[in-house]
């Protein structure tokens, strides 16, 4: 996706072009924008705000500056709409809906939501989604990572997994990447590796499902070590991570563990890069 300077241009022109670029662009041109980031968990089987309804599935609203992206829709439109109302969150305007993978606990809420949406935001799905679903949501199919123009939003693109492929949402911040995962069927570490490959930056925080329900503790501990070697600074696991695995992350990450669940509003202070 990235543009590269072709080797057919003489080196001197390339140098002049680079110098001109540095002279004209503000210093922050290639760094993440300073707007604060918030992630609001709208749908989760794990409770956080007691007055919201828990139900198996995941959905969250990710906002940075004026850009708002809905990631997944949970399983039931009614539950999603009810939680939105209790949270006093209006999904208008919405720049995009991104689906992590085809499973119903992440996509089932769409039709109910769509009936209530005033606007018609583009819906991004993976190429491997069933044709029927793609037709139903008038989807934009993607396989490669997406860069949403003029924003700090990216996706990992399609990462192979069992039983289904999946993508994660990436948001760049001055503190590093915030990666939002659905169910992590390709393996949470594989998704995170892809996120760092796509963006070339370290990961500040991971929020969402890590899919470790059946994973023995020793293996979860190994995954925590892989998180460390990838430089993941903070974690907010929920949905399909499993209570035991969440416990392992809580213990390992200490003050950098973030309790999550339905109603959690995670705000990342982007004004400084210190913790
Ligand atoms: Zn799934
Ligand atoms: Zn799921």
Structural account:
It is a single chain. Strand 10, helix 7 and strand 11 (234-238) form a beta-alpha-beta unit. It is globular and about 45 Å long. The model is unreliable at 1-9 and 16-29 (pLDDT under 50). It has 8 helices and 12 strands. The strands form 2 sheets. It has a 7-stranded mixed beta sheet, with helices on one face. It has a 5-stranded mixed beta sheet with strand order 7-8-9-10-11. The chain has helices spanning 11-24, 77-87, 104-107, 110-116, 131-137, 188-199, 217-230, 243-253, and strands at residues 37-44, 58-64, 67-71, 96-98, 123-126, 140-142, 153-155, 169-173, 176-181, 203-209, 234-238, 265-268. The protein starts with 10 loop residues before the first helix and ends in a 7-residue tail after the last strand. The chain is 29% helix and 22% strand. The protein has 275 residues and is an alpha/beta fold. The chain has a single domain (36-268), classed as Ribonuclease Z/Hydroxyacylglutathione hydrolase-like (Metallo-beta-lactamase, Chain A, 4-Layer Sandwich). Helix 6 packs parallel to helix 7. One zinc ion is lined by residues 58, 103, 105-106, 183, 209, 239-240.
């Amino acid at each position: 996706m990235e543009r590269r300077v072709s080797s057919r241009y003489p080196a001197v022109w390339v140098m002049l072009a680079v110098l001109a670029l540095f002279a004209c662009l503000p210093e922050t041109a290639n760094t993440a924008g300073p707007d604060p980031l918030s992630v609001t968990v709208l749908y989760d089987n794990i409770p956080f705000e007691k007055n919201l309804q828990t139900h198996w599935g995941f959905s969250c609203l990710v906002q940075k500056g004026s850009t708002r992206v809905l990631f997944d829709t949970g399983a039931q439109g009614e539950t999603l709409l009810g939680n939105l109302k209790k949270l006093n969150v209006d999904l208008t305007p919405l720049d995009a809906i991104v689906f992590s993978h085809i499973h119903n606990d992440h996509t089932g809420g769409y039709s109910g939501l769509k009936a209530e949406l005033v606007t018609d935001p583009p819906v991004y799905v993976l190429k491997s989604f069933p044709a029927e679903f793609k037709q139903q949501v008038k989807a934009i199919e993607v396989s490669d990572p997406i860069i949403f123009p003029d924003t700090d939003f990216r996706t990992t693109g399609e990462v192979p997994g069992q039983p289904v492929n999946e993508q994660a949402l990436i948001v760049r911040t001055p503190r590093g990447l915030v990666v939002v995962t659905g169910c992590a069927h390709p393996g949470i570490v594989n998704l995170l590796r892809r996120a760092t490959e796509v963006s070339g930056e370290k990961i500040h925080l991971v929020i969402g499902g890590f899919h470790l329900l059946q994973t023995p503790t020793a293996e979860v501990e190994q995954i925590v070590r892989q998180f460390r070697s990838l430089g993941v600074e903070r974690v907010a696991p929920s949905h399909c991570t499993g209570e035991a695995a969440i416990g392992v992350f809580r213990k390992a990450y200490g003050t950098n563990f973030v309790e999550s669940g339905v109603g959690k509003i995670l705000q990342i202070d982007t004004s400084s890069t210190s913790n």
